[in-house]
Structure prediction request, 389 residues.
Amino acid sequence: MARSADGTSAEHCKGHGAMNTPRILVVDDQPMNVEIVRSILASEGFGTLTAGNGPKARALSRDEQPDLILLDVVMPGENGFETCTLLKSDPATADIPIIFLSALDDVKSKVTGLRIGGVDYIPKPVNGEEVLARVRVHLRIQENNRALSEANRVRLNELRDAQQALLVNPADYPEASFAVFYKPLESAGGDFYEVVPLDSEVFGYFVADVSGHGVSAAFLTSAIKALLHQYSGPLFSPEDTMRGIDSVMRQLLGPEQYLTACYARLNRRSGRLAVVSAGHPPLILVKASGVPETVEMDGDPLGLFNSLVLQRKDVRVSRGDRFFLYSDGFIEAVPGGGRHVGLERLTTACVRHRTRPLEEAVASIATETRLDKGAATDDLLLLAVEVPK
Prediction:
């Protein structure tokens, strides 16, 4: 075993990577105590790391990432409780289980150790069989937690991939002249968009925000997509499309769950944009000249009420005009004010970048309005459409 002058040492086990041998960090200011515990562990094939004080133990934990820490409480300078608190406050070491080894055998000390993040508390003098038994239990728990976390990560990635496959890509419908920025808060998001070609000159653009976010909200996107296509076409007005989605969503959504949505149907032949909103933030229209307009209207969210109230507005558009649909994360996540300030900032950005290619404009608008300050608190979705010149 190699030991440095500062009391830090490591015993390297051959085949550690191949055999997946657990490594345990033993922390105690008394070399004799360290050697006793290290020998108990080594005799059963565990790899060991050792440190003689809290600061060295924390540095070694960050660098080596041991599978478990056996930590003395009474040490000069930084005691074991302080070391544990600092380890748990560091994201790099917060998940490493800590078992206290201490001559302090009173209830208050035990409770303190468990309250600040320890998983167990073994009184000194230690019994070798007890140490091994508890170490094995907590290593198995840790391994089970890792396996469960990895399984959940895989499932979420599969769900994310499935949801992404549902989302239309601008390259799929280049004639629809749209670009999109989409950043879910979690692996799978509750925001959803779709583009529906009704014929060569008529396109439907749909944006929805399911209350909440994550897995439960993401599961609904496939149903929304299917309903949108079912209730689109010349037989259905934009209001009919929204009412068709609402009728089914009321049966699928859980208690107090709903979705806001905006549906814009662009008819290039007539130069008319029909907009229906269901409790969604207003559509932003930017004329080719740079004059902006927000298309605001009242409307009930979908899936919430037995009798749905909707409002429709028809807007004249010309070649080179652009319009923008988005989720409320874009106007609520910006610093410096509430939704009104966020809407003004988003509208200003849409005007400022109106001459840039659509894909570049969307990326620039997203960066400018979010300002990349602070963590996002909601899914972010921005769909931009240009009336072909």
User: Anything to note?
Assistant: The domain at 167-386 is CATH 3.60.40.10 (Phosphatase 2c; domain 1). The radius of gyration is 30 Å. DSSP finds twelve helices and 17 strands in the chain. Residues 40 and 128 are 6 Å apart (CA to CA).
